[in-house]
């Protein structure tokens, strides 16, 4: 009976999700929420960030970021070529993000590591890569599925061995899922966003080699970081090696973009 319940739960999760292919050809499981719901969640999160955080009033910074975003988003597939909303936050941490529904946030701290337009494009294109690769949808789907299965497993153990065993199993299972299932998936997504973002930047006429310089600057700005197997991001040096190797193969794309008139002049 317990095996049947677990099998039914797994079958329900599979039916609830859809199998699709990411821009790099990777199989994904998505569909826990609709694209409309994702867009609403993105808009809500963006509105909250703008209400909570201080916005930059520096016209030059805002124009600069807007220029880079526009150059990149013009290279997106038709379904993604919406008018992306941009906000520059007065925050010293070198960070940026993109959300479903066409929302992009950039901290002023990113300018300390992104020294020119090509390096800023590497950051922004990477974040847009997460959106167009449906990583938010994928994460929600996997997290919901994991939570459901852990809850069922705890209930089954609890019915057999008592509530203490069920609670302990839920806690241990949650930690194991976070370490061995959800976090590795995040690293996969980060690598995929690197691939998609570097391609987008090159198509927009930004030098793909500058992604390497960006990450060298990030390392120099440095600080401690967790071990790779407990991180949601790839090892920085491994990342630099991969970006460098990929940049060589993207030079014809970059040169063709420049020859076709894609020559961004955003500044810095």
TrEMBL record:
The keyword Metal-binding applies. Keywords: Hydrolase, Metal-binding, Metalloprotease, Protease, Zinc. GO terms for molecular function: metal ion binding; metalloendopeptidase activity. InterPro entries: Mito/Outer_Membr_Metalloprot (IPR051156), Peptidase_M48 (IPR001915). GO terms for cellular component: membrane. Binds 1 zinc ion per subunit. GO terms for biological process: proteolysis involved in protein catabolic process. The keyword Metal-binding applies. Its cofactor is Zn(2+). It holds the Pfam family Peptidase_M48. Belongs to the peptidase M48 family. This is M48 family peptidase. It comes from Lysobacter soli. The lineage of its organism: Bacteria, Pseudomonadati, Pseudomonadota, Gammaproteobacteria, Lysobacterales.
